[in-house]
Amino acid sequence: xxxxxxxxxxxxxxxxxxxxxxxxxxxxxxxxxxxxxxxxxxxxxxxxxxxxxxxxxxxxxxxxxxxxxxxxxxxxxxxxxxxxxxxxxxxxxxxxxxxxxxxxxxxxxxxxxxxxxxxxxxxxxxxxxxxxxxxxxxxxxxxxxxxxxxxxxxxxxxxxxxxxxxxxxxxxxxxxxxxxxxxxxxxxxxxxxxxxxxxxxxxxxxxxxxxxxxxxxxxxxxxxxxxxxxxxxxxxxxxxxxxxxxxxxxxxxxxxxxxxxxxxxxxxxxxxxxxxxxxxxxxxxxxxxxxxxxxxxxxxxxxxxxxxxxxxxxxxxxxxxxxxxxxxxxxxxxxxxxxxxxxxxxxxxxxx
Length: 352
Hints:
The chain has helices at residues 34-37, 338-349, and strands spanning 19-23, 29-33, 44-49, 61-66, 72-76, 85-89, 95-99, 112-117, 123-127, 131-134, 140-144, 157-162, 168-172, 177-181, 187-191, 204-209, 215-219, 224-228, 234-238, 250-255, 261-265, 270-274, 280-285, 301-306, 312-316, 321-325. It is mainly β. The radius of gyration is 19 Å and the shape is globular.
């Protein structure tokens, strides 16, 4: 893929004659011309991570979320390293706080695979077979969960999301289900079972909540996206599909204020955007399925998040960085700190 410029975009328009396919529950597969629904992808804005200090480096970043005020939280599972952490950044990649280390105690992490922010600013971490809750600065507030298959138990808590009313939704991957809790960790309800049918799960890996409260689940094992209401009633699904919107190995998911759905497809090193019903809109990253390290390219894209003004943040795990995409006009003026100046230079010219 070619690099995006930071202002304007000379990204090539999508082929007119390509076809996209998607399915809706209880309906046939629809094939629409790409020219009727495709749009150009958002331009590259900036990146951070890589080397060369503890403040910027990621060892094995996975989850990402946007908190109140537009702050960014990234979880780093740091395989083979004791520095398993949550890092907090502003929207320009300046480090604001970080916390955590390897361990099983309060505020320590086993495998912080995903992170979510509550409407009150609380930070929730899916930490293998438990959930931990922190305040916005990393102060420990509580935890629950243990290994098992009972209510409130987990067999790999893979992903997490928090609704506008404070309910906590957890992807319990190896139990093939979704569990829901209140803000104090009390079990409320669950849904899902093993299988490939509607509402069944094989290897769920990501979760996002739409503005209307619907729950979208990435099922990496069956290469599809499933949509439920907040009580777990199955509504629709799509994938793996064909054409430009085909999914190879979807992992992460995020939804913007308009209900559009963004999916990281780690198997094809790209991000794919759909409308709320699964209609293909656009994609960016690799055009060949192979990873890359340039601006706008990915190697093992994982977590993804969208802020209130539509900027998209992608954990580019294989390149140990976060990339930000959006309209240059929506990017506010960054504070002129030395760390921001270095970050801005690196995003334009590469790290020195």
